[in-house]
């Protein structure tokens, strides 16, 4: 039987896939700073996470439901679970116009892994709903995506177990990161280059 400490947050997988250093700051060091993007995201999720279920035409919807997997040691809250024609699937809400990175798809896959264990039903798809464009993006739960998600679960579990800080690496993702002033990725990159010269 797993204890509570053995479960990792589904959200941590998204953060790790976006940036391992950011994940370490949030889930090991307990650091978090808001910026316009995180505030918009929190506001969106506050509206989405109104607990309840409803029907929309032929689709049954339930919001803000907790998901758990003993097999993978995952726990987290789904924005929306839908059922249509006997098939269930997760829908993750994001504030942006369109997904640029695989971390959103990975989060949907992790939710699906939990749902499969909780329901005994094979899930072949999920969606990411992008608020700014009001568009859904299909996430096909291929074996490649499943394997990538499982590797990320193992990586996050290792990160949390060791507490070892990954080096900050500057990429274009850093421009929108609320923790950029904490890790100073450009300065760290320059320091590493200086030490190598």
Mean pLDDT: 82
Q: Could you please say which CATH topology applies here?
A: Lambda Exonuclease, Chain A
Order of helices and strands: EHHHEEEEHEEHHH
CATH class: Alpha Beta
CATH architecture: Alpha-Beta Complex
Percent of residues in β-strands = 15-25%
Count the E strands. 7
- Termini Cα gap: 51 Å
Query: SS-based structural class?
Result: alpha/beta
Task: Work out the helicity level.
Answer: 40-55%
Overall tally of structural domains: 1
Radius of gyration, taken over Cα atoms and rounded to an integer in Å: 18 Å
List low-confidence stretches.
Answer: none
Approximate shape: globular
Description of the molecule:
The structure is a single chain. This protein is an alpha/beta fold and 197 residues long. The chain has a single domain (4-196), classed as Lambda Exonuclease, Chain A (Alpha-Beta Complex). It is built from seven helices and seven strands. It has helices at residues 10-18, 20-27, 36-48, 103-119, 143-162, 180-183, 185-196; strands at residues 8-9, 52-56, 59-69, 74-84, 87-94, 125-130, 135-140. Strands 1, 2, 3, 4, 5, 6 and 7 form a seven-stranded mixed sheet that branches. Strand 5, helix 4 (103-119) and strand 6 (125-130) form a beta-alpha-beta unit. Helix 1 (10-18) runs antiparallel to helix 4. The mean pLDDT is 82.
Summarize this structure as a short list of keywords or feature phrases:
single chain, 197 residues, alpha/beta, Lambda Exonuclease, Chain A, 7-stranded mixed β-sheet, 7 helices, globular
């Amino acid at each position: 039987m797993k204890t509570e400490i053995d479960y990792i947050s589904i959200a941590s997988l998204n953060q790790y896939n976006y940036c391992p250093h950011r994940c370490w700051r949030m889930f090991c060091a307990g650091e978090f700073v808001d910026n316009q993007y995180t505030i918009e995201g929190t506001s969106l999720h506050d509206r989405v996470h109104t607990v309840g279920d409803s029907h929309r035409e032929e689709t049954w919807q339930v919001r803000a439901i907790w998901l758990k997997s003993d097999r993978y040691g995952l726990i987290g809250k789904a924005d929306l679970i839908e059922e249509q024609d006997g098939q269930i699937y997760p829908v993750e809400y994001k504030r942006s116009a369109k997904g640029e990175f695989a971390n959103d798809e990975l989060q949907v896959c992790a939710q699906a892994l939990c749902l499969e264990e909780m329901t005994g039903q094979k899930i072949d798809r999920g969606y990411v709903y992008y608020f700014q464009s009001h568009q859904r993006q299909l996430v096909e739960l291929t074996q490649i995506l499943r394997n990538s998600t499982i590797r990320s679960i193992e990586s996050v579990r290792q990160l949390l177990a060791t507490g070892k800080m990954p080096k900050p690496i500057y990429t274009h993702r850093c421009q929108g990161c609320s923790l950029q002033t904490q890790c100073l990725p450009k300065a760290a990159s320059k320091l590493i280059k200086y030490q190598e010269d």
